[in-house]
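Predict structure. Chain length: 701.
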Amino acid sequence: ELAYKIDLNARIVAVAAHQRRRSTYTRLIRSCMLARLAARSLTLRPTSSKLALRATRCSSGIVEKTPTRHRSTMVRANATNADKLAALRSEMSARELSAFVVPSGDPHFSEYVAACFARRSWISDFTGSAGTVVVTQDKALLWTDGRYFVQAEAELTEDWTLMRSGTKDVPDVKKWLSTLDAGSKVGIDPNVHSVSEARAFKKALDNVGSSLVSVSENLVDLIWEERPPFPKTPLRVHGIEYSGQSVADKLEKIREKMTENKVQHLVVSSLDDVMWLCNVRGGDAPCNPVTLSYVLVGETSATFYVDLDKVTDAVKAHLSEANVDIKPYENMAHDVRDAARQGQTLWMDVDTVSIAMLEEAEAGAEEMPASAKAARTENATDVSESKSKAVKEGKSPIPIAKAVKNEAEMAGMVEAHLMDGAAMAEFWCWIENEVAAGRAIDEYTAGEKVIECRAKQKGYIEESFPSIVGEGPHGAIVHYRATEKSARDIGAESLVLLDSGGQFACGTTDVTRTAHFGTPSDHQRDCYTRVLQGHIALDQMVFPVGTKGFVLDAFARSHLWANGLDYRHGTGHGVGAALNVHEGPQGISPRFANLTGLLAGMILSNEPGYYEDGAFGIRIETLLQVVEADTKFNFGDTGFLAFEVLTMIPIQTKLMDLSIMSDKEIKWVNDYHAKVWKNVSPRVSGDVLRWLENACKPISK
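Prediction complete.
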């Protein structure tokens, strides 16, 4: 009895401590789950063409599902993957779900997410940045793209099936879901699925007599016992010397677009869009300087929704200058609903706004009082407008505005790349000396040294993505990340691929170089040279204003194609100015779906490669700015564009097979290295200066 009382008292103390800890996170938990926006049974009516709510509305106006009478089984950190799947399937059974979809993203569809939103990684043990999981009662499937095939094969257990996206006879997620038995119920968390994605799922399932059902709480959260806490990194002001445009000026331009589109509000959901618009930066996601937040832009108002604990006095004063209000993150849902209730129209991008947020607006419109409906009809210019929805769907005007850098942003990017050039010259000098001296070095220590070299530069903040250091066969894993356990040694006969980048206060960098520390084989030199030839071909392109990226992609692949080779990733992605290293909407890839035309001021990567599974990988990447081309003629007054290189880091000449290179290509290499020497040499000294001079020596046949 005494032991029982002691144990009981201990439990009481523990519960009290737990409740104190829990209260600390209550507001933020509600924030990150969007005030339980997903708390609804969003069974999609087969007879309706739109997503419909089927739930009970509580007094707060938030739609909630009647709680499921089921006690969740929490899974500890040391549990096997089979244990995780069993617990998830138990939750599915309690809700009569045939399948549950776990995407990679957070409520803002970020590529890199805070640890608390890494649900797909936790349930599958696959750590790549892109992928979607579908779990049924007898199957567990992971879809990912060609960058991660080798990595996924290594990380997934035998309980999983790898679905190689984009390869022959492999259906995409929605097509696979449509093969389930008629009457199947597929569960989603509507907070982490965009409107367009949810609609695509619904359409595919409706066609086969199945349904899409939303859950009141993410099922992975219910079983993830040691889920990381929500981030609390303070915000910082991104100064006008780097942004080049005030928040007030940006809002003015956005409101002009809103007026053209006859809307009263713009919903800004993508985190980098929010950061760009507000000229602030955060630290909630690894490598990307963003914070969990929204902005609601009105005709005369603007509100920034964020965890108030992250707002410093400097940020508060900065936003106040532009008349931007600051509210708790969870208030966004209420204000969207309230705006719709008042008869106002909200502009939403269906690719970047969650289905949960859209339905808040639709629910508000349903609650619109008669007076608001009458006012909308009275102010409408025609009958169709008076009957318009609460939401106007269309591409947000912010991504294009953000993609076209102004003078200050571009100047910051140029400076960031000059600092990066000095840092990477120090790194390559160091690693060559270490290998030549026979000192022990591996992929992991090399990656740590990269960080150390960049950290010496002014304004360095963090990596722009985890460094990819792949020796030999690890180089063939496109987005490989070494650990202390997995790291391969780097020695005198190593071929090493290094893809890395930095976040500086003034800009963002991303560069890949491939180097051999001994004598490369003829096959390696041939593959490397063909990659380089494609790199040069793209760099030298001149093209009309508005050319789509897919038009240029073949030029980077043509020399590889000529020898029956290729690579499974895009050739170029957009890059943010002191923002996300992967930024849309522009890109260069074989995908015809991206119809964004290239414009002066955009920044893209140029990164063809070749990867031989189990042997080696090659990639050469520099960042390019799009500039106006100086052409003799201007056909049709179209205007022509060209590329100007930003990256200032030598390309190893040892790996080049000069016998298959043209004189023009050799001249390009020499001209590039002359530019690197001119711009970087004043920033280095001693051994690093001597290394740089040798690396930039002219080559000839």
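Summary: The longest strand covers residues 622-628.
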